[in-house]
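Reopening: C-alpha cells for the iron/sulfur cluster complex, inputs below.
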Amino acid sequence: MATATLDTLLANYADLSARELDDRIARAKCELGSRLVILGHHYQRDEVVKFADYRGDSLRLSQLAAGRPEAEYIVFCGVHFMAESADILSGDHQTVILPDLNAGCSMADMANLEQVEVCWEALTAANSGKILPVTYINSTAAIKAFVGRNGGAVCTSSNARKVMEWALARGEKALFLPDEHLGRNTGYGLGIPLEQMAVWNPREVDGGLTGDQIGDSRIFLWKGHCSVHMRFSPEHVEHARKAHPGIRVIAHPECSWEVCQAADEVGSTEYIIKRIVEAPPGSAWAVGTEIHMIRRLAHEHPDRMVVSLDDCVCMCSTMFRISPQHLCWTLESLCSGRVVNRIQVDPETKGWALVALNRMLEIR
Ligand code: 13P
Ligand code: SF4
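Re-run output (same inputs, fresh job):
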C-alpha cells in the first residue's frame, strides 16, 4: 500500500477520542473472534497492551502464536524482528501483522548480512573454522538464517548463558551478534576475561582488530547496542542507592558491563518481572530497563517501590510507534477482508532461521 494511502487512512483515526478507539478496537476484536490473536510485548504502552490476548517477552509471544494454529491472524504489538520470529515459528496458514511497519529495533538494524559475512570470512580464516555464531533474538531474520547456515543458534536474554556455553563447547570461540553488551555480560559471567572478548566494528577494516586480537580472542562481540539500555550509567546506580538506602538495583543485560557490575541483580525482562512480582511488600527496586514495563510493574504492585534507574524517561521509541490508532486501523481492515502490514519472511530465510531457533530450543 502506498504511503499516501496509509497516511490518509490513519488521518481518519487521528481525531478519534480514546473512548471511541477503545470501543472500535473491542468491536473489531470481537468480530474477528478466534480467527485473531493479539500479542503484546511488555514494553508496549497500556492503551495498546490492554487489548493483548497474551503479554510477554519476544520469544514467549512467538511460541504462543505457534501454539494457536486456529488463529488466522497474528497481530504483533511489538517490533519488526519479533513479528518476523512469529512468522518463522507459526504455520504457513497464519498471517503475521505489525500494526506500524516503522516499529523497528535500532539494535537489530546494527548488523546487516553483508557486514556479517565480511566479518565471518575474516574470523573463520584466522581461527581455522573453530568458531560458532550466536545471535540474540533481537536480530533480523536474515541474520538468524546466517547463524542457522553456519551451525550456530539464536539466544534470548534469558538463555544467553546456556547458548554461549553450548557454542564455546562446540566451536572453542564464538561470534556474538548484534549486542556487544549482552555478549560481554554473558561471556564475563562464564568466567571469560574482558581481554579475551574483542569488539568487531563493522565500520572499520578488519573490524578494527589486530591480527593478534583476531587470533587470541575467545569471543567476538559485534559492535551493536540498545540505545534505551545504554542510557543507564553506574552513576545512576550510585544515585539510586543514596536516594533510597536499601533499594535493590536490577538491570537488564543489554545495559553496559559497568552498570551490570554495579547492580545487585542482572536479568532478562521475564526475570525482572518475576523478581518484582515475588518480592515482599515494602521492598524497593530501581530497574534498568524500558519505562512502560517499569511503570506497569509499579502500578500493579503499589505495595512495592518500583522506580526507573534513570529519572529521565528511558523509552523504546520504536515500541511506542504502535498506537491505538494503528491497532484499530489494522483490525478494522481485517474485518473488511483486507490484510495490511503483513510481515512475511521468504521461505529460504525462514528455513535457516528456524534451524537456528530450533537449536536454541533444544539446548537445555
Ligand atoms: P525480550 O527478548 O526480553 O522480550 O527483550 C526484547 C528487547 O527488545 C529488550 O530490549
Ligand atoms: Fe530494540 Fe532496545 Fe527497543 Fe529492545 S528496547 S526493541 S533492543 S531498541
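Residues 57-58, 137-138, 156-157, 226, 254, 268-269 surround 1,3-dihydroxyacetonephosphate (ligand 1) (CB under 6 Å). The chain has three domains: 6-104+318-344, 108-227, 229-308. Marking as resolved unless the reporter disagrees.
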